[in-house]
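Quick one: structure tokens for this chain, please?
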Amino acid sequence: MQRRAITVSGIVQGVGFRPFVFGLATRLQLTGFARNDARGVIIEVQGTPSALDEFLAALTREAPTLARIEAISSRVIPPQDGAGFEIRESDSGGHADVFISPDVATCGDCLRELFDPADRRYRYPFINCTNCGPRLTIVTGAPYDRASTTMASFTMCEECRVEYEDPLDRRFHAQPIACAICGPQLRLLDQNGELLESDDSLRGFAGAILSGQIGALKGLGGFHLVCDATNEHAVQRLRSRKHREEKPFAVMFRDVALAAAHCHITAAEEELLRSRAAPIVLLRPNESRGVADSVAPANPLLGVVLPYTPIHHLLVEAVNQVPLVMTSGNRSDEPIARENDEAVERLRGIADVFLVHDRPIHVRCDDSVTRIVAGQELPIRRSRGYAPLPINVPFTSPAPILAVGGQLKGTFALARQNHVFLSHHLGDLDHHQAYVAFESDIALYRELFQFDPAYIAHDLHPDYASTRYAQATGLPLIAVQHHHAHMASCMAENSVTEQVIGATFDGLGYGTDGGVWGGEFLVGDYTGFTRVAHLRYVGMPGGDQATREPWRMALAHLRDAGTGCAEFDSRIADTERRVVEQMLERRLNSPMSSSAGRLFDAVASLVGVRDRVSYEGQAAVELEWLATGRAECGSYPYEFCDASNREAQVIDTRPMIRAIVADVQKKTEQRTIARRFHSTLASMITEACQRISRERGIRSVVLSGGVFMNALLTREVLARLDTAELRVYRHRHVPSNDAGLSLGQAAIAAARLKDEPHRTIVI
């Protein structure tokens, strides 16, 4: 007989791993035990060598669906007396290498019980098991046991206790286990937070929604605002109260069949909708959407999500399959409300009725948003269902690193060994409440992962809130240029280690020359980069104000190109135009920018799509929508300027601007101009990459930055670079926008520390 001590690390807690080990050991007639500790699952198992070999092989081959095994170590130890196999109490001591599971959509077994009148959990809105339910949002510490979750205050009834302690039950050590006798309960509140008497709080809430009211629903990671998606008046009232004039709302459909009656759904999109993560998926609606026009005004896509909690499943049944607007429970741009009193305080005046419960949410977590582009997933917001799954990177960090990301679409990352744990979406840090959440969630993740950073990686921009946070820690700092972080983010998630060409196109990023970068071609790796080409610098009148008023960028590009446009001038007040012209002439509050995002804004305004925006990136998004579906119809001229007297080649956009103006003056169809502009950018990117490849001998290209959220541009660039026989890497697991910066910062910091271990501050 032989005995082996085995440690299994990864996502192996709260996913039914110990019951699986118990069953496997019993089947193979092995003795020993399994328990959780801060490192993962610790197993001691004893039997014949052949049975032990089979046990080790089956650990990976037959692991539970939700498990994600990162490593298995095994060593032979002296045999011990004993009979049978047991599951022991967890050990909370030691250093934590355990991974925290994301929240998981309700499984099929629990759904069957939920709607089975003979089941004791019939219609219980908090049904769950080891294969589904809350994880990240309720966990308060490691290891993942009930005492370290927000369920600690709920004492299990006898029937739940029996299930919880039975290794053969699928609820064995399901930490959120509960039933109507011992678990959380729903309550219905009025707009002032006063209790509304109701025989069935959920049906009462559903009735309010069907009558045209707006509801606030406490979900997994925070509150949602809910209304009837077919009721135009209700949707408009929600927009008015929430101060969200035009940004699209997501819609919850009961199931894929109902969603398919409203939208075109490919096999890949259906797989995402049905996945355990259950994200919001952007889909192309049918000609008759079946929802109110105000749900996604002028938007060719609809954000669709399926029910992913028992409360959702009960709610969509109670509203007779009516599609529901399901949007973040906040005022525009604030973090979502998390707890009952907070929700009533912050959402009073928006919601008419509140459906709340008494299970606390420890980690605030928005819905994830994603889509399929060119046959692969392109995450837009990585949050519930995905975070905090680690990104496996092709290097080992020499020390624990906290990377704090940028200013917009905030995330942070913890780098330890060869994993980077990326946080959930935190919002834009220029909003105070988002910054408060950023600080508190960093502290929470440090506690959960028992993570003590030795270094802080941050953006070069001195005025970012994340930079100020880093500076206030007193820890050694590693400053990372914005677009280098974008490039490294795409490299890291694709396990790329060689030198690459980085086409990094976005809105704004602080450059090493003090300019505002955003249309960049870099060459390098994790340790460093060279800027080899970029879009021509143009003044950005009013700084950040130009991002809210695209006409300012249009005027800047017109003046730079030495031309005018009567159609544009007729829409802009003379006084406004003169002020901006003087700002440009005097270079007053007009930083020079190579931003591709601001170029999109300029063209959108010149074409007449959008002179002012109500949300970040709106003009660029609407220009993409305008061009989508239009066949290729030519492109505009541009020039590569000689780089002999410069650090990098400059791509001159002035010929393109003059040609666009000529098309506008000829009354060329808007969508034709928009399509030609996209083709022109695709041509620019391809030609630049080909030139750099020939000069540098590099065949790999990474595409990163928020501009590559543009599906039309991304598809065309991918096709052209493939024709050019260049190897292209794109984002598939992490957003290409600023939400991915923290991953890139962590990767660069780790590489620099390995290369220069004695430096404490790296710029």
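The chain has four domains: 2-87, 186-357, 388-494+740-755, 504-731.
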